[in-house]
Amino acid sequence: MSREQLVVERTRKAFLTGSTKPLKFRIQQLQCLLRFITERRKDIADAVHKDLYKVTEHGTELFETLGLEGDIQLAIEKVWEWAAPRPVEKTLLTISDEVYIRPEPLGVVLIIGAWNYPWAVTLKPLVGAIAAGNAAVIKPSEISSHSAKLMEDLLPLYLDKDLYPVVTGGVTETQELLKQRFDHIFYTGNCTVGKLVMQAAAQHLTPVSLELGGKSPCFIDKNCDLNVACRRITWGKFVNCGQTCIAPDYILCEASIQSRVVEEIRKCIKEFYTEDPKTFKDYGRIVNQRHFRRVVALMEGSTVALGGDRDESQCYIAPTVLKDVTGTSTVMTEEIFGPVLPIITVSGLDEAIGFINEREKPLVVYVFSHDKKLIRRVITETSSGALLANDCLVHATVSALPFGGVGNSGMGCYQGRHGFDRLSHLRSCLIKKLNMEAVNSMRYPPHTAKKMGW
Ligand code: NAD
């Protein structure tokens, strides 16, 4: 029996004791998770620094732990409300019955995390899993190995170690886990592995949530405030060295504003990361050489308008803007997931919408404009996991909004109550009384015309 099989068996056994059912227990575990994040903030920041060269503890707090803490606090506060039976509208037939939806735990959930925000993307689904009363096997990404090790060492000191074990390892270990039977698999990562996860899940008819990536377009209206728009885009694109699933992947704008967009982004890069981002403490690195080479290769054949410097020994790529890119350029063949921002010029909104709709549905569609009608057209004429107008990334911080993709960018959403519902079984409950049998006579055979009232 493999280590992974043993872990899953132990987790299921622990789940079957029923200890996760009382809300008090769930809240207590969520409080422990919160205590872990607050007490180990420094250790978490150190691990993230080693994994992704994020130097400042504040940067890690802002992008990893702050949202996580908010999610945990919300779940602690609201789990009573989320888990309560949900009465539904009655009809004449159910007027004297009890009719409600009862959220119930699914069982044992497998959470497979990615490396780019190793704490947020791995522990946020765990918040929903715990709140919904599940047990969970947690598999952090091997690429962010320092964070994975810390999670493995420290989480069992805070959470019930039989119900929420951490399994570390690489592809082999993940594949061994995927052979086991789970009640839900929550995967965050790329589309190729997403398909493998879904195939493995199909063997046990296990439902999946796939939080994937894609190329999120960003349309800039020529009449908008380019200074503010480019400030927000520069921030959203280059934070974490472009390794953010919801980062704007490329810009669509009219040719008449392309050089102004480049100029505004140039100013913002200088303001945020100085003239020399390589030596600046808030500018990150590509996670490893494989990804470094992949991002560099994507730039091939395009015209560099800004940046372009690189240093393989440090996995450094300067904040880079490419201009006059076309839909068939190499950089448009896959999600960039690095600090490279192509600009594609279009004749106007119609062409931009056509360009977006010819491609896979993205995780986010971004639009910058003062014109509400224009924004509304982008909303109604495109499809994506989320739509954000006049800003970048921040929709992910609104816990009332579901976070997730559609089509190629993923399936299933989470965050706040959406995470609770995603990892719950919404059980239909109808409780009738054994009296008033006469009203049922019509449904019992023989079905005579007299009984039917004809
Ligand atoms: P990764 O390489 O760390 O893979 C994620 C997990 O998949 C790891 O735990 C790994 O062990 C496992 N894995 C890798 N290859 C496997 C295989 N052949 N079989 C089984 N398991 C395997 O992460 P990644 O995929 O490079 O992450 C980056 C991608 O994730 C980007 O596309 C990004 O957009 C996406 N992402 C999406 C979200 C979201 O919320 N939608 C968040 C973060 C990242």
From TrEMBL:
Keyword terms: Endoplasmic reticulum, Fatty acid metabolism, Lipid metabolism, Membrane, Microsome, NAD, Oxidoreductase, Phosphoprotein, Transmembrane, Transmembrane helix
Main subcellular location: endoplasmic reticulum
GO MF term (any one): farnesal dehydrogenase (NAD+) activity
Domain Aldehyde dehydrogenase: 7-427
Record's catalysed reaction(s): octanal + NAD(+) + H2O = octanoate + NADH + 2 H(+); (2E)-hexadecenal + NAD(+) + H2O = (E)-hexadec-2-enoate + NADH + 2 H(+); (2E,6E)-farnesal + NAD(+) + H2O = (2E,6E)-farnesoate + NADH + 2 H(+); tetradecanal + NAD(+) + H2O = tetradecanoate + NADH + 2 H(+)
Record has Glycoprotein as a keyword: no
Keyword Nucleotidyltransferase annotated: no
GO cellular component, one term: endoplasmic reticulum membrane
Protein known as: Aldehyde dehydrogenase
